[in-house]
Amino acid sequence: MATGQREGAPRVAAARDLPRVPFAVADEIGRHCADPHEPNTVHIEIHLPGPVRPDRLRAALTQALARHPRALMRERRHRPFARRYEWELTDAPCGDVVLFPPRAPGALAQARQRALTEAPSLLFSPPLRMEVVEEPGTDGCVLVLTVHHTALDGPACLRIVATAAEIYSGRPASPVPPPVRPPAGPVPRAAGGRAAGVGAAVARVAAGNPGAAPPGNGMLITELPVPLRASGAAYTVNDQLMVATALTVAEWNRRQSAPERPLRITMPVDNRTRGPAMPIGNGTRLVEVGFTPAEVRAGTDVGALLRITAERTRALKARARAPLGRGAAMLASPVLPVAARAVLTRGVRRLAAPWTSTTLLSNIGRVPYPLDFGDAGRASAVWFSAPAAMPRGLTFTAASTGGRLHLALRWSRTLLGDEDGGVLCRMLADHLTSTDAEAL
User: Fold this and answer.
1) pTM of the model
2) What digits encode the pLDDT tens for the residues 98-136?
3) How many separate domains does the chain show?
């Protein structure tokens, strides 16, 4: 095991009071719903064409964390009747953040497995680790990052790595424009209401054949061309991914003879700037895109579905909403002690399972940083994967680099097996091709 993080004897002085920051709503809900069998981790892997220099990389990441001090946090131990969880902001990492597992065949597969099964401790600052993986017969290396999602999300961690790349290479990156979002406005009728399956119990991803695999998450990554869009089309690549995801889940459920029900797909929306001042933490809000059974049946008009989906996603992105919705904000209100709120939150989660969204699609989009590591080269591929705890049990995550789409499927091993993941991946690739302008 190559975690390299130890909770005892941190390097940060404990004799004085450290600055504290209360948990945000997303942090608290993630803390309450933690499951040791399905760690709440975000996996990021960055492929570089050449090797990195260990001391130089460690120094660069340490300096990057100092430039983003909000990442240097650990959970403060709380009293039994405390009403809030709090982060302590430390002056420096509590131990080694950059690790170098032995160069060996299968090292990357083992690092990926650790990213899914071994969450960084919340008592360690920062709650992330970077493993630099090399395998015999290859010239480059892979940076495998594991992030505790209770503390940080994928875009925030990538911003830290981008800063480290700038420091490592000695070349400042070009300014990054903020994400372009549609102006707020009235919600089109197709974006909500029962026409989009809102308000009813939704479809679950039908169980496959998990076999006797140990509990936890499985993952499969693939690389595909970015689908083409028709000239002047109102839909985006994100909409194409959304349609492909809906059609994939609907086809999978039909093959498993599951009853037809509306689909709802959770989609993170991130309005943060991507520059050096990007807020660090969990900064996305979650919206849900609905699809009726009729919209995703076999033989559907993909072009029409793309147009409807584009209307829905534009409206949802423009609508103001709490990060996890009003219900989560109420559960995180510091009226009761956190221990009581944890019991209440887990109970509500179990009761709300029939109305929890079917799956999650997280599209990072085009990676906005060059991730130039100087003599090690620029990133040739970047993959993310989001946690896939039940009751959803399946997530889809996408990012694009160099004109290629990097997709990760991640699933709960209590729901699906590795062969099921392969089938779903092939389905998604086929349905994504059906959204290509040349196929419409």
Assistant:
1) 0.91
2) 999 999 999 999 999 999 999 999 999 999 999 999 999
3) 1
